[in-house]
Write a structure and sequence with these properties.
Largest sheet: 5 strands, antiparallel
Shape: globular
Number of helices: 2
Distance between the termini: 72 Å
Helix content: 10-25%
Strand content: 35-45%
Structural class: alpha+beta
Radius of gyration: 19 Å
Length: 163
């Protein structure tokens, strides 16, 4: 009996590990933004970035902390097997106020903003149902989606004081 439970435990652990690693670091490989002259423009990888396996028509939310005096860049990308247009919205976690909706910007995957206050955000990513725009065939039911969050210190503007 112990061998059966041990076998089931090992099997379930392997299945969970394999599902978690399916998309692993997808956001680091496929959501990167090319900048002029090969530099990264001072953008740094934010550890709140995530990748996951999404089904068509599914929605997922992630909580993110942003800090005053920082610029942020959010980039959402996916495998073309589920289409090329992802929807995402950014909400204030405390008030639930909608701060940004990429569907009002032709589903643009990239969004840059400056934070004037430290606060928590909720980023909601949705994968629509439907065919890919490339081949008009029914896409796969599930594919990897990446959410890359980058940050940098806001550049000083105007006259600055010497300390």
């Amino acid at each position: 009996m112990k061998k059966i439970f041990l076998s089931l435990f090992i099997l379930s652990s392997v299945m969970l590990f394999s599902q978690a690693s399916v998309c692993g670091q997808f956001h680091r490989k496929f959501c990167t933004v090319e900048t002029k002259r090969g530099g990264n423009g001072g953008w740094l990888y934010n550890a709140q970035s995530k990748s996951g396996l999404f089904n068509q028509g599914s929605t997922s939310k992630i909580r993110c902390v942003i800090y005053k005096g920082m610029d942020y860049r959010i980039n959402v990308c996916c495998e073309t097997a589920i289409g090329d247009k992802l929807n995402y919205k950014i909400f204030d976690a405390r008030t639930s106020e909608l701060l940004y909706d990429n569907s009002t910007a032709q589903n643009e995957p990239l969004f840059e903003f400056q934070s004037t206050a430290s606060r928590q955000l909720i980023i909601e990513v949705s994968v629509p149902n439907g065919a890919t725009s490339q081949d008009k065939h029914k896409p796969m039911e599930a594919a990897c989606v990446g959410l890359l969050i980058e940050h940098k210190v806001t550049d000083r503007q105007g006259f600055s004081q010497y300390e």
